[in-house]
Write a structure and sequence with these properties.
It is a single chain. This protein is mostly helical. The protein has one domain: MetI-like (MetI-like fold), CATH 1.10.3720.10. It is about 75% helix and about 0% strand. The chain contains eleven helices and no strands. It is elongated.
Length: about 270
């Protein structure tokens, strides 16, 4: 709640939050804003330009693009948030344990992160999905196996700094339980940079999910995922440019929203003074 109160301190954060709320509100109100089923085919209405009845036009199957873009927002945001925050929770735990205990525990966990970190992000995700097969479930698995690394390294560095502070050293002298110290004193401070990083990670993940669908390795048609909408529009870019334009703008919009929100979080979580 304190973070939300402080977000208006940053104009960028406030704008990002408004953009995200507008997106969420539009997805909730879509059934009332547009009567069309995102999956319903109507070949008689195929490739119609944007109009009062079809705000974003229709695709080659006569499906309403506005409805499909809004349904895609739910699809992509759900995928992206799960693919970011589940690995984040695991990475924060790993990084905190490595930084707090040090020694062989730190060495073993960091060598593991070094191995995964050696491979480019997209290459590793593509390889995992390529081996497991194209499906939504396998996307979750691939992103979990890759996405936790960054959080582990960030939180490990923060934890090592926090562990050297006098009040943390005092808890060791007083023989406070390690789990209690980590949960009450280390975690709230160490997780701050991870939260800021997660916003840019959401942007990267939305783009990666769209790219995976574009190459046929992500969510499969007829799901209204933004990458799929762009793939389906490639052959019709001259005749019906709106088929590509609006899903592309949706990806840009959500990317800007989370980037600004990340900047706002950075300001809101920064100590005063």
């Amino acid at each position: 709640m304190l973070v939300l109160k402080n977000l208006p301190r940053s104009p960028a954060g406030a704008i990002g939050l408004v953009m995200l709320l507008v997106t969420l509100l539009a997805t909730v109100l879509t059934p009332w804003l547009s009567p069309w089923d995102p999956y319903a085919l109507d070949f008689g209405a195929a490739m119609q330009a944007p109009s009062a009845s079809h705000w974003f036009g229709t695709d080659n199957f006569g499906r309403d693009i506005f409805t499909r873009v809004m349904a895609g927002a739910v699809f992509d945001l759900r995928l992206a948030l799960v693919c970011v925050f589940v690995p984040m929770a695991f990475g924060v735990a790993v990084g905190m344990v490595a930084g707090f205990f040090g020694g062989w525990v730190d060495a073993a966990l960091m060598r593991l992160t070094d191995i995964v970190w050696a491979f480019p992000f997209y290459v590793l995700v593509l390889a995992i999905v390529g081996v497991l097969g194209a499906s939504e479930t396998n996307l979750y698995v691939a992103f979990f196996l890759v996405n936790w690394i960054g959080y582990a390294r960030i939180v490990r560095g923060e934890t090592m700094l926090i562990s050297r502070l006098e009040y943390i050293e005092a808890t060791r002298v007083l023989r406070f339980g390690r789990i209690r110290v980590m949960a009450r004193h280390v975690l709230p401070n160490a997780v701050t940079p991870a939260l800021v990083y997660s916003m840019s990670d959401v942007v990267l993940t939305v783009q990666a999910i769209a790219a995976m669908s574009f190459f046929g390795l992500g969510v499969q048609p007829p799901a209204p995922e933004w990458g799929i909408l762009i793939v389906e529009s490639i052959d019709y870019m001259r005749e019906a440019p709106w088929m590509t334009l609006f899903p592309g703008l949706a990806i840009v919009w959500i990317g800007i929203a989370f980037s600004l929100l990340g900047e706002g979080l950075s300001t809101a979580l920064k100590p005063k003074g």
